[in-house]
Amino acid sequence: MAKMAAYMVESGEDVFRKMFKFYKRRDPPPDLRGVVDFSSEPPADKVAPAHLDAAAVSDEEAARVGLRPVRDWRAFSLQGFPGFIFISNPFLRGSQPFWVRQCLKTYPQKPNVCNLDLHMSACDTQDIWAKSAPVLRSPSSGRNQPKTLLEKLHWVTLGYHYNWDTKTYSADNHTPFPADLHSLSARVASACGFPGFRSEAAILNYYRPDSSLGIHVDESELDHTRPLLSFSFGQSAIFLLGGTRRQDPPTAMLVHSGDVMVMSGQSRLLYHAVPRILPTPRGHGALLEDLRPASPQQAAAMLEPVSEEDWMACSVYIQKSRLNMTVRQVLGAGQSFPVAPPSSVTRTDKSEIGGYHDEDPGKRKRSDSDSANET
Ligand code: SIN
């Protein structure tokens, strides 16, 4: 891999794109030996423990959003990426199902916006969960049945809704940001040295086994001094983190259910992408065992319990899917949106690969109604 990167740097080719294609390839499948896995013994020459502010979040505040005490988090920094923090599953056992259920049942509801709104009536997308969950729960789920709406969901936006065409946020396209997701985000941000983080926008990505997310930089927010927070649930993925130029070779890392990534400081505006979804390492049974909802007694201390009925549908869904939420603060203190939108796009989407695409990179354009998203 190092050789390939060196060759590509010399030849001036777009190294990130090459690496993206390398990890996306199905036949033969890519060699994953060079991929950093923070859940096992990460390589000491690339990875070091990250310092967190354990006093910034009390154990009770952490537990209320399903997180372990901050002093118990396994947090890492990555050499060459100042400001990037990888927190290997800081969630309390039994609390991830709450967030999975929010992603599947609650957040896709109106007034939030999703890809299905682009080509379906508001009435048809009114209750995606109610229309999909019974089908997912049925014993014949997945067998020669048309896809449920939930399985057609690619993205949901919260708070300031990202405009995929202008690549901007605006004051008049806003709905209330979910309080529970803000609490989770604010606690993670505080522990990482960003007190007072305001969750103002989120993009939720729903990945199927053949999905990928194109190479992009999240630069549409007006204040880049605030971090970008990323929460992942369900199946695993390869995440590529590059530099400020497409010629910079990216580092590949595995992201598993519960992992949290923070992009801040010099790593806030780096190219990144998800070329591949991978089955969870120990199999779906083990994932479900790890994720099993907390008992009502445990849950009483933390989050609203997930009913068995809801979990049955969620667990079928995540057997094949990955969920990712990226939470952003859009405006800095005292900042507001420009009065008139600029005539040209000020916040370039540098990706040349479509957002979600299940085919060859570049075949599907970003404007595809059901293709997600780069920001
Ligand atoms: C991810 O799915 O891990 C990344 C999402 C993003 O970059 O928007």
Automatic annotation (TrEMBL):
List all Basic and acidic residues biased stretches: 347-362
Kindly list the GO molecular function terms attached to this UniProt entry. Answer: broad specificity oxidative DNA demethylase activity; class I DNA-(apurinic or apyrimidinic site) endonuclease activity; DNA N6-methyladenine demethylase activity; ferrous iron binding; oxidative RNA demethylase activity
- So what does this thing catalyse? N(1)-methyladenosine(58) in tRNA + 2-oxoglutarate + O2 = adenosine(58) in tRNA + formaldehyde + succinate + CO2; a methylated nucleobase within DNA + 2-oxoglutarate + O2 = a nucleobase within DNA + formaldehyde + succinate + CO2; 5-methylcytidine(34) in mitochondrial tRNA(Met) + 2 2-oxoglutarate + 2 O2 = 5-formylcytidine(34) in mitochondrial tRNA(Met) + 2 succinate + 2 CO2 + H2O; an N(6)-methyl-2'-deoxyadenosine in DNA + 2-oxoglutarate + O2 = a 2'-deoxyadenosine in DNA + formaldehyde + succinate + CO2
Q: Which InterPro entries has this protein been placed in?
A: Alkb (IPR004574), AlkB-like (IPR027450), AlkB-like_sf (IPR037151), Oxoglu/Fe-dep_dioxygenase_dom (IPR005123)
Region: Disordered; residue ranges are 335-375
EC assignment: the record states 1.14.11.33, 1.14.11.51, 4.2.99.18
Q: PANTHER family in the record, alphabetically?
A: ALKYLATED DNA REPAIR PROTEIN ALKB-RELATED, NUCLEIC ACID DIOXYGENASE ALKBH1
Which protein is depicted?
Answer: Nucleic acid dioxygenase ALKBH1
From which source organism is this entry? Oryzias latipes (Japanese rice fish)
